[in-house]
Amino acid sequence: MFVVSIALGCTSPPSCCSPFHFLCARTCQISIPTYDLSFRLNNLTDRMSTPFLVHPQEIDAYWLQRRIGRAYGDAIDAPRAQQLAEEVLATLASATDSRAVENELVLALGFEQFELIKELLRNRLKIVWCTRLSRTQVWLEGGVHEC
Predict the structure, then answer these.
(1) What is the spatial distance between Cα 34 and Cα 29, in angstroms, rounded to a whole number?
(2) Residue 45 has pLDDT above 70, yes or no
(3) 3-state SS of the chain?
(4) Among candidates 110, 123, 144, which has minimal Cα distance to 47?
(5) Directed axis angle between helix 124-140 and helix 78-93, to 10°?
(6) CA-CA distance, 58 to 127, in Å (whole number)?
(7) How far apart are CA 10 and CA 69, in angstroms?
(8) 79-113: per-residue pLDDT in tens?
(9) Whole-prediction pTM value?
(10) Residue 101: is it exposed, middle or buried by C-beta count within 10 angstroms (0-12/13-18/19+)?
(11) How far, in Å, CA of 15 to CA of 12, rounded?
């Protein structure tokens, strides 16, 4: 705690002249609790620097497909990555609980891709909504033509 002196006020508790406490001519001392903001900022910085958190601006209409391609490397071709990305997006967008989603992702991607699955689960809503938003923007700009 630290104490702040204010010229407009009194040294008595605020009830002394309530509701016109601010009109007293004496100096008022107020105790203000301090919080350890450095801990909170460091904690936030640590969480943001983890490799499993994705910034929303990184996610576009094809982010999931690229991310799956990067995880599998040369073991997957573009059409299969696209198909897998659609399956994964549908799984992430489902209203089921996190455990069921994790199980479905393990079945779709394989246990070898556990790091990818962890990243997808931690950013589940971000991935779903940013991908949908990006796809809508592409569609509105005329980038996608469907019958």
Answers:
(1) 15
(2) no
(3) CEEEEECCCCCCCHHHCCCCHHHCCCCEEEEECCCCHHHHHHHHHHHHCCCCCCCHHHCCCCHHHHHHHHHHHHHCCHHHHHHHHHHHHHHHHCCCCHHHHHHHHHHHHCHHHHHHHHHHHHCHHHHHHHHHHHHHHHHHCCCCCCC
(4) 123
(5) 120
(6) 10
(7) 68
(8) 999 999 999 999 999 988 999 999 999 999 999 99
(9) 0.61
(10) buried
(11) 8
CA distance 133 to 147: 21
Residues in the chain: 147
Tokens of 112: 């070898």
Q: Which two tokens stand for residue 1?
A: 């705690």
Return the pLDDT at 58.
Answer: 87
State the residue for tokens 């900022």: 41
